[in-house]
Design goal:
Rossmann fold; seven-stranded mixed sheet; alpha/beta; 2 domains; single chain
Length: 209
């Protein structure tokens, strides 16, 4: 599958940067088309600028008034830039029904835990790692999944585990999980590009034991 990727990010955009670096190195054959952010001060916008990637800020207060909603503005902007796969890279808003419909089976997210555990509304960033540590889990990790209308409930494409150590705090665990996020996201995108993952059949990769 030819990948023409539209990114959505809200803050630091480290997964955006990792994917762009893997495209630049030739590991991943894909065309970055546009970044949409809801935060005009997002570091992700600087990453996009440094990579000559178009960056557009669309949020509830600021989007072209030719559109009736932010959801429509996002969907139409992705279409305008000929995007065929949407990659969420730390995007903190829920994706609306118009965008979900326009890009059915074509929106991916990465979650900093081993779904289906520690997902759902309010489970993002350090809240996830705090919950993992509080539960005394021996392992955590990252999950790439397809997006649907429910938080973190879309079909799972791949997971990667990391150990949780007794001396871990939120910061050390977050760093370990983020490192595998950077590897896993591009791996999944590469498998889609090589037709090892068929998004329409929602087949995905086999989960590790």
């Amino acid at each position: 599958m030819e990948l023409r990727i539209g990114f959505l990010a809200s803050h630091n955009g480290s997964n955006l940067q990792a994917i762009l670096e893997n495209i630049s190195s030739g590991y991943l054959k894909a065309k970055p088309m546009v970044l949409i952010t809801n935060n005009s001060n997002a570091k992700a916008s600087k990453i996009a600028d440094d990579s000559c990637l178009v960056s557009i800020c669309l949020n509830k207060k600021d989007y072209p008034q030719i559109f009736v909603s932010l959801d429509e503005a996002i969907a139409e902007t992705l279409k305008e830039y000929d995007v065929n796969l949407v990659v969420l890279a730390g995007y903190m808003n829920k994706i609306g029904p118009l965008t979900l419909s326009a890009y059915k089976n074509r929106i991916l997210n990465i979650h900093p835990a081993l779904l289906p555990k520690y997902g759902g509304d309010g489970m993002y960033g350090w809240f996830v790692h705090e919950a993992v540590l509080r539960a005394g889990e021996k392992e955590s990790g990252a999950t790439v999944h397809m997006l649907n209308e429910d938080y973190d409930k879309g079909p799972i494409l791949a997971r990667c585990k990391v150990s949780v150590y007794p001396e871990d705090d939120v910061n050390t665990l977050a760093k370990r999980v983020l490192k595998v996020e950077h590897q896993l996201y591009s791996q999944v995108l590469r498998d889609i590009q090589l037709d090892r993952i068929d998004l329409d059949c929602m087949s995905g990769l086999s989960l590790p034991d």
